[in-house]
Write a structure and sequence with these properties.
The chain is mostly beta strands and 270 residues long. The protein has one domain (2-250). The chain is 15% helix and 39% strand. The protein has four helices and twelve strands; from the N terminus they run E-H-E-E-E-E-H-H-H-E-E-E-E-E-E-E. Strands 1, 2, 3, 4, 5, 6, 7, 8, 9, 10, 11 and 12 form a twelve-stranded antiparallel sheet that branches. A hairpin with a 4-residue loop joins strand 3 and strand 4. Helix 2 (102-112) crosses helix 4. The relative contact order is 0.13.
Length: 270
C-alpha cells in the first residue's frame, strides 16, 4: 500500500476583494456575481470571521495487492463559515428581492428532492437509457418550484469532492459529491387565508453533505456499459432544520357556535 495525503487551509483574499474592502466598490463598475461569499470584501456579519477560509485535501493511494488506485480531491469551507464556499440568492443583511427567482427555486428544489431522484434510479442497470430517470420523478421538483406558495431564498455550497477508483480490470468508477443547502420560505395562501407560512428570515434549511453523481465504464451488473446515476450518501450526514426561531407558522382556525331558541322552544338535553 502506497499513499500520499496533503491537507491544507487557505484564506482566499483576491485583489478584487482588497479593492472592494478599501472602497466598497467593485473595480471598473463591475456587476457583482450572483454566487459570492463576501459583502464589500468583508465577512457578511461580525459573527462570521471564518468567511473565506477554505480547506483542501488531496489523496492518492495505490493498493498493489488488489491493483486498486484511488484519487480524491476535497474542497470545503471552514466549519465555522456560515455562508460556505458560494452562496446564491440574497443573504442575511441584504434586501430581499420582491419577486421570486424561479431558476434559483428550481435549483434548490432539485437539491431538496435529490434523495427521491436516487430512489427513482435504483434498480436500473446504469446504462445510458436507464440513467434517464422517469419523467414523473424529474417533474416533481420542477412542479414544486413552479407553485407560487414556495420559494427558495438561497442555495449555499459548503464543499465538493471528486473521488475516482481505477481497478486493474479496467473498470473506472468516479463520484462528484457536494455539501449543499437550500433555504425555503413559504406562504400557503388559500382565498386570503394564510394556512402555513415560513418566515424568509428564518427559512426551512435542507442540507445534504454528500449528494451528486456517480459515473463510470461499468454498470451495476459489471458489464461494459456507461453508468450515470444520482447518489446520496446519508452516512455523511444531512439536516432538515425546521426550528429556526419558530419559523413555521400554522394558522389556527377557531369556530364559534351559537344557539338561539324560538319562543316556546327549548334546546334538547344531551
Amino acid at each position: 500500500m502506497v499513499a500520499v495525503e496533503v491537507d491544507m487551509e487557505i484564506d482566499f483574499q483576491t485583489a478584487a476583494e482588497e479593492k472592494i474592502n478599501s472602497s466598497g466598490q467593485l473595480p471598473g463598475g463591475t456587476t457583482p456575481t450572483q454566487g459570492r461569499t463576501m459583502q464589500n470584501g468583508a465577512p457578511l456579519a461580525p459573527d462570521n470571521p471564518a468567511d473565506g477560509i477554505t480547506q483542501l485535501k488531496l489523496l492518492a493511494q495505490s493498493d498493489q495487492a488488489t491493483g486498486l488506485i484511488t484519487a480524491m480531491i476535497q474542497v470545503g469551507a471552514d466549519p465555522a463559515d456560515k455562508d460556505g464556499l458560494l452562496a446564491f440568492g440574497w443573504l442575511p443583511g441584504e434586501t430581499r428581492p420582491v419577486n421570486k427567482d424561479i431558476w434559483l427555486t428550481l435549483f434548490g428544489s432539485y437539491i431538496s428532492f435529490w434523495p427521491m431522484l436516487v430512489d427513482f434510479s435504483s434498480g436500473n442497470h446504469g446504462g445510458a437509457v436507464d440513467a434517464a430517470l422517469t419523467v414523473a420523478g424529474l417533474a416533481i421538483p420542477g412542479a414544486v418550484a413552479l407553485i407560487p406558495w414556495f420559494r427558495v431564498e438561497r442555495v449555499i455550497v459548503f464543499g465538493a469532492e471528486y473521488l475516482q477508483r481505477d481497478h486493474n480490470s479496467g473498470e473506472i468508477e468516479a463520484f462528484i459529491l457536494f455539501d449543499v443547502e437550500a433555504d425555503w420560505s413559504a406562504d400557503v395562501d388559500i382565498g386570503g387565508f394564510h394556512l402555513i407560512a415560513i418566515d424568509p428570515n428564518f427559512p426551512l434549511a435542507v442540507r445534504y453533505k454528500a449528494i451528486g453523481l456517480r459515473f463510470g465504464n461499468r454498470d451495476d451488473a459489471l458489464q461494459p456499459n456507461f453508468t450515470l446515476k444520482p447518489v446520496f450518501d446519508a452516512s455523511k450526514g444531512f439536516t432538515i432544520d425546521v426550528a429556526r426561531g419558530g419559523s413555521i407558522k400554522v394558522a389556527r382556525h377557531s369556530t364559534r357556535s351559537s344557539r338561539s331558541s324560538a319562543p316556546g322552544c327549548r334546546a334538547p338535553t344531551l
